[in-house]
Amino acid sequence: MEHGTSYKERKVITIGVVSELTGLSERQIRYYEERKLIFPERSPRGNRKYSFADVEQLVDIANKREEGVQTFEIRQEMLKEKKKEEAKNIKKEMLRGQINARFGVQKN
Amino acid sequence: MEHGTSYKERKVITIGVVSELTGLSERQIRYYEERKLIFPERSPRGNRKYSFADVEQLVDIANKREEGVQTFEIRQEMLKEKKKEEAKNIKKEMLRGQINARFGVQKN
DNA sequence: CGTGTAAGGAATTCTGACACG
DNA sequence: CGTGTAAGGAATTCTGACACG
């Protein structure tokens, strides 16, 4: 990766565009941030900037909300997902460690 | 593709962010549009929106300009590139036609 | 030709708050 | 709890123009 993040992860979209893209109001988008469901970056002046991944996350949140799921519960589910991901990554790293130990020591 | 365009092509970035990303002034970015080097979309209200592909294009343009290449010349080069792409695509389509003619008629 | 800048107006975004439920 | 809204201010964006070169 040339810049640390892919197009999908780079935070470059302003809240107005996110609102158009998701159909959510800016109020809703800001509230979901308050509830720690979404984590925009800030421009120098303080404007929120979102990634495509954030937009997709928001669409998921919107669907859950329509089903009546509360933001608190959505947060719980997100944390579970995150742990699963971490477990996966640890397995990968262990495997990599095994391979390096036997076949050589390429950093990264 | 789920929406006609990939993350790279979707026009969602405002001119201020493009300016930060490229280091070009808004004035320059608008001028390159005037010279038909770049083609942002417009939001409902009229604000320009760019894609990551546009951002990369602008970086290329900036490099050419530093070398003293004029916008007119840059445009010429772009048109040449475009023709090459089209020629490639025509070849692909012809090949596909050949295959369909011999082995079956799957549309698309 | 390519870019800076001041100008004026319209739309954007931000925060903190009140409202309803 | 989740969302709407009015409030006031600061930053954003737009266009058309003058300037310099």
Query: What is the oligomeric state here?
Result: homodimer
Q: How many structural domains in the coordinates of chain A?
A: 1
What percent strand of chain A? 5-15%
Q: Let me know the largest β-sheet of chain A.
A: 3 strands, antiparallel
Helix/strand-derived class of chain A? mainly alpha
Predict the CATH topology of chain A.
Answer: Multidrug-efflux Transporter Regulator, Chain: A, Domain 2
Q: Note the total helix count of chain A.
A: 4
Report the count of strand segments of chain A.
Answer: 3
Q: Write the CATH architecture name of chain A.
A: Orthogonal Bundle
User: Hey, which two chains have the biggest interface?
Assistant: A-B, 15 and 15 residues
Lateral strand order in the biggest sheet of chain A: 1-3-2
Shape, per Cα inertia axes of chain A: extended
Helices and strands in order, then pairings?
The structure is a homodimer of 108-residue chains.
Chain A: E1 13-14, H1 15-22, H2 26-34, E2 41-42, E3 48-50, H3 52-66, H4 71-103
The first copy, chain A, binds a DNA duplex (21 and 21 nucleotides) through helix 2.
Keywords (chains A, B): DNA-binding, Repressor, Transcription, Transcription regulation
Domain HTH merR-type (chains A, B): 12-80
Protein name (chains A, B): MerR HTH family regulatory protein
